[in-house]
């Protein structure tokens, strides 16, 4: 079954925009489960901290921040924001090109667009609604967007590289939103995201910076980067 994709602020520019900070200086990740991942990504210039000495691994990540990370890790091009075609984004925000690029490529699912509506014109299709860029992203949303980026990057030629989804065995599988279920299945089967280690997936929980770093690391690994 082929998944249908409809798809910092400057602080988390702190997760994807490199700075001079080195992972060894992040005192707050010592002993953290994602310490090795964060260190490797920081040393490679993929992620950076909120300061020279802190990564703040358990802080939340917004939708816009994660969309930026996923698109950059997936090598997905942005697009200039077009008035009236970029949901609730005015065009002056740093994340505007990412939202427009994601919309143009069908990476943002209907389930993440409040008040979703679509206008089919003679020469274009315009999606309306609100992406709510400043809202902390949930784990199911993070999984879906990452899978969407990964699948888009494969293209039609390599689409057979996708692992087919299977029924998930998480204890809280029923807590996954209907619109996100296929995306989570594909993301899990393609080793982009995993469970919480206690038998649950925690789909409605807010994703953390450490979890975001982990899934970005998995995406880069799958792409062979």
The largest sheet is: 2 strands, antiparallel
Query: Uncertain spans, ≥5 residues at pLDDT below 50?
Result: 1-23
**Helix vs. strand class:** mainly alpha
Task: Give the % helix.
Answer: 25-40%
Give the helix tally.
Answer: 7
Order of strands in the sheet with most strands = 1-2
Could you give the order of the helices and strands?
HHHHEEHHH
Strand content: 5-15%
How many DSSP-defined strands? 2
Calculate the terminal CA-CA distance, rounded to whole Å: 27 Å
Average pLDDT figure? 87
Radius of gyration: 17 Å
Relevant terms:
disordered N terminus; two-stranded antiparallel sheet; 225 residues; mainly alpha
Please explain how this structure is put together:
The chain has 225 residues and is mostly helical. It has a domain at 13-76 and 136-223. Helix content is 32%, strand content 6%. It is built from seven helices and two strands; from the N terminus they run H-H-H-H-E-E-H-H-H. It has helices at residues 13-16, 35-43, 63-73, 96-104, 139-154, 181-189, 209-223, and strands at 114-120, 125-130. A two-stranded antiparallel ribbon has the order 1-2. Strand 1 and strand 2 form a beta hairpin. The protein is globular, with a radius of gyration of 17 Å. The two termini are 27 Å apart. The model is unreliable at 1-23 (pLDDT under 50).
